[in-house]
Design a protein that fits this description.
The chain is an all-alpha fold. The protein has helices at about 1-55, 60-75, 80-100, 105, 110-145, 150-155.
Length: about 180
């Protein structure tokens, strides 16, 4: 009888361990998709800045903020810093589009309009990927918070995953309609 109880406990622990690993891997996979779209956006930003620079060269501080935010985003090494640096880049892009609104010639520039459309498309794909990641991360976080899986999670030294949330600076949507 004692052997049966030990066997059941071991099987439950194995099940919980595998559940945590499975959910962690699902969140990692979802974040990898987000990362692909973030990199696409990071690659598009310099082109967008150059087009706006041609019409608003004296807005040096805006361009420097974008360059710095993009560099921090590209150099982020883990998911937590990637989430934070993405929010910084969103804020910087918002200021770029606010500058662009002040230049009528820019609003009709074919290169700017094409880059704007590409950015809109990437933003839509990125939003969908973030939702998928947040769902997987929430499921994983819930598993780490509920009993008895929280006990095994602590033994495994697992920590909660950061969610992509819109910070107050970018809560107002970037207006990219010209």
């Amino acid at each position: 009888m004692g052997v049966l109880i030990i066997l059941i406990v071991v099987l439950v622990l194995i099940f919980i361990f595998n559940l945590i690993v499975k959910e962690n891997n699902a969140a990692k996979k979802a974040f990898a998709t987000v990362d692909v779209y973030l990199k696409k956006r990071y690659d598009l930003v310099p082109n967008l800045v150059e087009v706006v620079k041609g019409h608003a060269a004296h807005e040096k501080e805006v361009f420097e903020n974008i360059a710095n935010a993009r560099t921090r985003a590209i150099e982020s090494k883990d998911e937590d810093t990637s989430v934070k640096s993405d929010n910084e880049l969103n804020t910087a892009l918002k200021s770029l589009f606010m500058v662009a609104e002040q230049y009528p010639n820019l609003k009709t520039n074919a290169s700017f309009l094409e880059l704007q459309k590409k950015l809109n498309d990437i933003e839509d794909e990125l939003a969908a990927a973030r939702r998928t990641y947040n769902a997987a991360a929430t499921e994983y976080n819930t598993t780490l918070e509920t009993f008895p899986t929280n006990l095994v999670g602590k033994l495994m030294r697992k920590k909660q995953r950061e969610l992509f949330v819109v910070n107050d600076d970018v809560r107002n949507a970037i207006n990219m309609k010209f």
